[in-house]
Amino acid sequence: MKMEKNALLLGSVLGIPLRLHISLLILIGVVSLMAASAGVNPIIILILAIGLFGSIALHELGHSVVARAKGGYIQEIVLYPFGGAAKIANLSTKPSEEILIALAGPAVSLVLALIFLPFSITHDLGRLNMVLFLFNILPVFPMDGGRVLRAGLSIKNGRLNATRTAAQVGKYFCGLFVIIGLFGMPFQLLGFIGPFRPSLMLAFIGGYIYMAGQQELRMVMFEHQANHFSGYREADIGVEVSPPPYARGGGSNDSFMERLKKLFRR
Asked: Which of these is catalytic: 60, 76, 223, 240?
């Protein structure tokens, strides 16, 4: 397998390169060893991991196919420990098209959940896909549901103001994730247990999504200013689409500041 940017090339699907980040292999190995020490068959963990990340790859492929149909260029899909990333350049900013692209991934997850849930052998994988669907349709920018919210708001309020509002809504959700993840409170005081147990993973995801949302807000502000002063087009900046979350990226290895300097040298 060819290694590039710490990711192994698994192959291509519909002409889109599919890569596996080395950190994901390490995580699967560690979890398998922990499972073995706890008396759980590591083969079961491995099979479930393959099924889960295969589902995430299909989720990303859903985004990618629709984005390509709307004029986007799909550079690659990379699978990470906390989700996948479809790296898309020239992503459409039309509200109707952004909604379709954002909903394509959760739609794939929902279909997979409905396929896997009825059978006992694949029931757990079906539940994971249902969780992936439900989590991604929450109005938490820059996740899928948050992008749908932003696109809807941008019809009347413009892209910049809509992004500000969506990021603000997402901030409250992320704060809730962190509170539940760290303390499981105040929900346990109200008698709600189950999904509201403390989870460091949920707290980490909440913080990570918040930072990604703020980064995207800054990027949209930058695009807005650049569009007025230099004729720069928003679509010239690439986007990495992932559940969760979306993160801004570029078609090259340039840092944000380097791209900023290049822009105003035009």
From this structure: 60
